[in-house]
Amino acid sequence: MRFCLGKICLFAALALAASFRSYAKETPTSREETIPTEEVEQQNVLTNAIEVRHLKPEQADRPYHVELEGVVTMSNSRSLVLQDASGGVYIHFRTPPGQPQPHPGEIWRINGITGAGDFSPVIYATDARFVRHGTLPEPIIPTWDQLLGGSLDAEQIEIRGVVIEASKSRVKLLTQGGATTILSDSFYPLPFEAMTDEEVTSLIGCLVRFRGVYASSWDISIGRVHPTEFHLGNAVMTLEKPALENPFAATAAHAKDLLGFASHLNALEPVKVTGLVLYTKPPLFFLTDAEQGFRAICRKNCDVVPGDQVEVVGYSQPGGPSPILQEAAIRKIGRTKMPAPIALHADEILDSRFDSTRVRLEATVLSDSVRQNERILECNSGNHHFFAYVPSISDSLVPLEKNSIIRLTGTYLSNASNKISTSSNLFELRLQNKNDIEVLQRGPWWTFQHTVILITILCGALLLAVAWVASLHRTVARRSKELAREIEERESLERHRILEQERSRVAQDLHDELGSGLTEAGFLTALMKNPEISIKDKDGYLDQLRQVCHSLVSGLDEIVWAVNPRYDSAEDLADYFSLFAPRFLNLAGIRCRLQIDDQIPKIPLSPHQRHAIFLATKEALTNVVRHSNANEVILAISVKSTELLIRITDDGSGFTPVDEQGNRNGLRGMKDRLEQIGGNFSIESTPGIGSTVHFIIPLKGIE
């Protein structure tokens, strides 16, 4: 049966041609507007289709002038395809009024200019003339790579295959190289206009030949060819062999016979193989006929499960690790037990001849996990790495420990395209259920994963500790600032208190030391002004006034020294005593011998400390002047470790403990003053020999 493309109405063609001629004469095309005529004439004239086809897009847009003669292989109201001995080319052409429209098989001469086109270079015709009647060229039998790449664009081709899908908009063919689709539209219609939908559908399973002008299915938006899809211009179809009424009446064969199907004459004929289903992964089915494993690709709803005995009808596909029946139909004919597995050794584990067979092997577990309702065992056998898949069940699974040794029984699925492979990861094992796993030796409980988890926990704890320490550090820093501020405030208050205390002390000293003396000086001055007092008495009062004034000057000097911050060290204290003691004792006629260390450090003393030490020392010297009858006093000052030592020794009369009790007020005053500043007081006295007073004062801030 042969279906031909009908001719377009002559009157409609003439009308369209007339309108195009009028348009072409009065209004140049956009390409003619952008390309000056004189520039085109300067280019070389192209006379072969192959010269146009070899132009790059930027070269075709220059443009080049074309004078081409060839046979029309396709035509419609807006274009035609012209083919000469070198090939075909697409031509934009509208038939001028009064001119006949080109028809396939006629020879025409075309003048025009080149253009880039959407997919391949094209010609914009400026003049077209009928030459004579001819015949269509012999079609090209395309290879599979040519169909995928679109290199046959605008060429007359013929394609042979079995119809596996058919409608008025497309037809899908199973060819020697694979499945391809011929599309139909208004410019490239398939020869199905005169057929009903049922007649088109009845073509499924028929062996047919399609002949026409190849046009790639080009996606302008992404700039790519749709592989395995194309159009045919001026398409005709020839029915070579009708479909079998009963697909399972096809020629019966064994699976191993499929490996010999290499002839182009029988490669597209259906064949029937009887086998046992080992594993299903629709649309892929893995089967065996007890001698050879094979695969079937069934895109229909095939209600079969492992263990079913079936008949499979399909078309043999060359290549692959095992024979493949594509576009298959499967029919269940019974059920039987699974075949005994083949024991595999490590040295033959990558042999793809075991594809689609039931095998048994030993392996070491690397990991055990569940993903997408499937349990996945990552295993190693010898030096070969592979995965075993088990359908997951609802009840909980106890995962296998790493390095467990197990024995697996399942269907061997090879991923290699050749028969023997030396690469790893080229096969997988499909198990029916967990009973196909036999544990020979469980691995150690503690695994690397546990180590990673422990390290992760420890790292997390360390990070938390670091964060806690950082937070604690910030808290301590904040509290330190607050404490420093509080201490500073307290020190400020303490300094203020000490200052107030010192002011009160100075005021008290001024009152005690100077107040009474000034009062006495006032009385003496008043007596000297009294005229009733004799001159002799006034001279006595004048001597008393002089002594009082001298005492006031000494007292004022002592007060100023005590509060002067320039004399606030132990060294300054020793220097002042070296001046005060001789002056004080010489007034009483007592010699003063000094024993003061040369290396007394400049350790700071507060005004309160200096004043207390001075008053205690002055009290001791006063006692010597008043009670000892001494001729000489030794004043020794030194620093030992962190203590200031002051020793006052006289050669006076001394005293007994009874005398000490009788004069205890002065001694108690010295003791109280030293205790106020944390010091110690002691006295040694021998009647007739003299006395020695010891002051021990701790010094703060010694490094």
TrEMBL record:
InterPro entries: HATPase_C_sf, HATPase_dom, Sensor_HK_TwoCompSys. Keywords: ATP-binding, Kinase, Membrane, Nucleotide-binding, Signal, Transferase, Transmembrane, Transmembrane helix, Two-component regulatory system. One of its GO terms (biological process) is phosphorelay signal transduction system. One of its GO terms (molecular function) is protein histidine kinase activity. It holds the Pfam family HATPase_c. The chain crosses the membrane at residues 452-472. Residues 608-701 form the Histidine kinase/HSP90-like ATPase domain. It catalyses: ATP + protein L-histidine = ADP + protein N-phospho-L-histidine. It is an enzyme of class 2 (transferase). The keyword RNA-binding does not apply. Its EC number is 2.7.13.3. It comes from the Bacteria. The keyword ATP-binding applies. Residues 1-24 form the signal peptide. This is histidine kinase. It comes from Luteolibacter pohnpeiensis.
